Amino acid sequence: MKILFTGGGTMGSVTPLIAVAEVLKARDPGCDLFWLGTRSGPEERVIRRYNIDFKGIFSGKLRRYFSMENVLDVFKIIIGFWQAVFILIKLRPQAIVSAGGFVAVPVVWASWFLGIPNIIHQQDVKVGLANNLCGLMAKKITVCFPVTAKYFKKNKTEIIGNPVRNNLRAMAALDKEALLERLNLKKDWPVVLVTGGGTGALALNQLVFDSLKELTKFCQVVHLTGENKADDDFSHENYIHYDFLVNIIPFIKIADLIVTRAGMGTLTEISYLKKPALVMPIPRSHQVANADYFYERGAVEILDQEKIDSDDLIKRIKELLDGKSKLKELSKKIHEMIKWGAEERLAEIILETARKI
């Protein structure tokens, strides 16, 4: 059996599919897995670690506002479509699986053109343009949240939650103190993890850089900056930064508080490990709906990128670290936000679909 995944550009559309790929391999070691992603995104290095055959194709981003780049990107999508057509003809997979991301659009269209069934997973609260463009062509659609199901046809949509990887499930059982020692962090100082996702977040990074002098007086800061986005002028024993982490899960496990964007990949991981979070969604993006959905249910605290400054950030972090009852409440509620076991159910759907070919 051959299954082809598609997604990339950021890790948000990649992480849940890797979790499903792990289940497929466990159920059928002879199953051949392939991936079509972007030519320059962060996903290739991660996907290859799972022994999945990866190919990069052209892709474009169709913006919801006027931009001359839209013209160029239309041609990229057309090129990507024909690349996908020829690759699919050569590979002949039984099913295509995507979870959003603009690189998925030409691949899903190509699979529909060739009569190959495709399955779409919608993890964000608000449906992105990529999945909107692909939804009509999907054989089956799975969603993370009940509120999102209404945007797709009822007879082919199922609410399953969001998939989680093996290393995330394994990490839940590990001892935090042993991990702190392994990662060379102090056991008697709180740890704040800051992550803007696999490609980093400039606004969040700058806010943290401006706050480091004060933050390092009362907590240890582990900062995932994104490649070539670190501030090399600041050095302190309570500050560690990484350009990129193939496996961020150990750092999520040991964190007392997480400061992050509101992509569903990260929100799923911190929800599973019951981690309190301050989330700063990208303004006027799908992340705002994610952040609001969690906030309205008491599961996160929100930072407004357009209003917050370094003094506010320092104050919010210190208040939460000092307020143990609030951290405990956030920890409990965030874990209740998502239905767990989605990786198993989505793998079942893929196999059921593929076997009908």
Label this structure with key terms:
357 residues, alpha/beta, Rossmann fold, 2 domains, seven-stranded parallel sheet, six-stranded parallel sheet, 13 strands, 43% helix, globular, glycosyltransferase, cell wall biogenesis/degradation
Q: Could you explain the architecture of this structure?
A:
One of its GO terms (biological process) is regulation of cell shape. It is an enzyme of class 2 (transferase). Pfam families: Glyco_tran_28_C, Glyco_transf_28. UDP-N-acetyl-alpha-D-glucosamine binds at residues 165, 287. It comes from Candidatus Kuenenbacteria bacterium RBG_16_41_7. The chain has 357 residues and is α/β, with parallel strands linked by helices. It folds into 2 domains: 2-163 and 341-355, Rossmann fold (3-Layer(aba) Sandwich); 167-335, 3-Layer(aba) Sandwich (Rossmann fold), CATH 3.40.50.2000. It is built from 14 helices and 13 strands. A 7-stranded parallel sheet has the order 3-2-1-4-5-6-7, sandwiched between helices. Helix 4 (104-114) runs parallel beside helix 5 (129-135). The radius of gyration is 20 Å and the shape is globular. The model has no long low-confidence stretch (mean pLDDT 93).
Order of helices and strands: EHEHEHEHEHEEHHEHEEHEHEHEHHH
How helix-rich are the residues, as a percent range?
40-55%
- Over all CA atoms, what is the radius of gyration? 20 Å
Please identify the structural class as seen in this structure: alpha/beta
Known CATH architecture of the largest domain = 3-Layer(aba) Sandwich
Characterize the biggest β-sheet. Answer: 7 strands, parallel
Give the distance, in angstroms, between the N- and C-terminal Cα atoms.
10 Å
How many helices? The count is 14
CATH homologous superfamily name of the largest domain? Answer: Glycogen Phosphorylase B
Tell me the β content.
15-25%
CATH class of the largest domain: Alpha Beta
Shape from CA axes? globular
Q: Output the CATH topology of the largest domain.
A: Rossmann fold
Total tally of structural domains: 2
Function: Cell wall formation. Catalyzes the transfer of a GlcNAc subunit on undecaprenyl-pyrophosphoryl-MurNAc-pentapeptide (lipid intermediate I) to form undecaprenyl-pyrophosphoryl-MurNAc-(pentapeptide)GlcNAc (lipid intermediate II).
Domain Glycosyltransferase family 28 N-terminal: 3-141
Keywords: Cell cycle, Cell division, Cell membrane, Cell shape, Cell wall biogenesis/degradation, Glycosyltransferase, Membrane, Peptidoglycan synthesis, Transferase
Protein name: UDP-N-acetylglucosamine--N-acetylmuramyl-(pentapeptide) pyrophosphoryl-undecaprenol N-acetylglucosamine transferase
